[in-house]
Amino acid sequence: MTASQPTQGHSTSTVLGRRLGGELTRLRTAAGFTQTQAAKPLSASIGKIAKMEGGWVPIREPDIRALCVLYGVDDPSVVGGLLELARVDRERRKAKGGWNDAPFAPPMKEYAALESAARSIKTWQVAFIPGLLQTVDYIRALNSDDLFINARLTRQRRLTDDPQIQLQAVIYEAVLRNLVGGVDVMRKQLDHLAVVGQRRNVSVRVLPFSAGAQLGMGCGFSILSFADPGAMDVVYVQVPRQPLWREGGEGAAEHDELFEGIAQHALSESDSRTFIGSLSEGL
């Protein structure tokens, strides 16, 4: 689990780079090769292999294919997942976006950048409405900085501009009852949730108090997928004051299982809209 984005000279170890490097390390170890042996088919130094596995440098497609051949990895889905993650990481390292100038903490800037490249997002929220679903008044109640507001609104445009992205949000009932910004702001926020939840690429579900205690209620988290769901996922864990990344395959799989367990106890999309509507009317 990683709390920050480390640097080494002019190199940066990115979340996706470390996720990809970790997977390449796992494959190399499973195949019984050393870093010295892995360097030979690439005509590279051991240092380069170490940097690749540590996520310090972008990795070219030919290098990944050569390593897969060496490690005996020929499953198209595995090779394709590695290639896709490498492609997204290369683009991420070059990307510029509104998050760069926004008053975000470094982990949040990294999250915003990765979110802009993700194919699907699963988010479990116990404190606030998911950022992608917040109204401008709700955002302003959390942070009145114009750069912060504009950056968040820019992130939201992807839900309408790119219908291929899929968002699944499960929200704890307490979040919906918390009067962020006051009654009027919260009523409009609830009404917005009910409307946006009807988009084909957005799923909004509520975990009601009646569901009782569930695993995962201690903090929210988001799972970002960049290839097929489950392939090379990374997880952003919203620990107060110290957000963390889960970059390993097991960590991502554990959180995906946790999300699905929570979702099983949540209301259906239709019942969630009805529930949200009733809360809005009761304000």
Please give a handful of descriptors for the protein shown.
alpha/beta, 12 helices, 434 Repressor (Amino-terminal Domain), 283 residues
Indicate the topology.
Layout: E1 7-8, E2 11-12, H1 15-31, H2 35-39, H3 46-53, H4 61-71, H5 76-94, H6 106-115, E3 120-125, H7 136-142, H8 146-161, E4 166-172, H9 173-177, H10 183-196, E5 202-207, E6 221-225, E7 234-237, E8 244-246, H11 249-264, H12 269-281
Parallel strand pairs: 3-4, 4-5
Antiparallel strand pairs: 1-2, 3-6, 6-7, 7-8
Q: What is shown here, in short?
A:
The protein is α/β, with parallel strands linked by helices and 283 residues long.
Query: What can be said about the biggest beta sheet?
Result: 6 strands, mixed
Choose one word for the global shape: elongated
Please tally the β strands and state the result. 8
Q: What percent of residues are in strands?
A: 5-15%
Which class of the largest domain in CATH terms? Alpha Beta
Annotation field: number of helices: 12
Oligomer type: single chain
Low-confidence stretches: none
What is CATH's topology name of the largest domain?
Endonuclease, Chain A
Report helical residue fraction.
Answer: 40-55%
What structural class do helix, strand and pairing data support?
alpha/beta
Mean pLDDT: 88
Count of discrete domains: 2
CATH superfamily of the largest domain: Endonuclease Chain A
Biggest sheet: strands side by side, in what order? 5-4-3-6-7-8
| Alpha-carbon Rg, integer | 20 Å
The CATH level-2 architecture of the largest domain is identified as 2-Layer Sandwich
CA distance, first residue to last residue: 41 Å
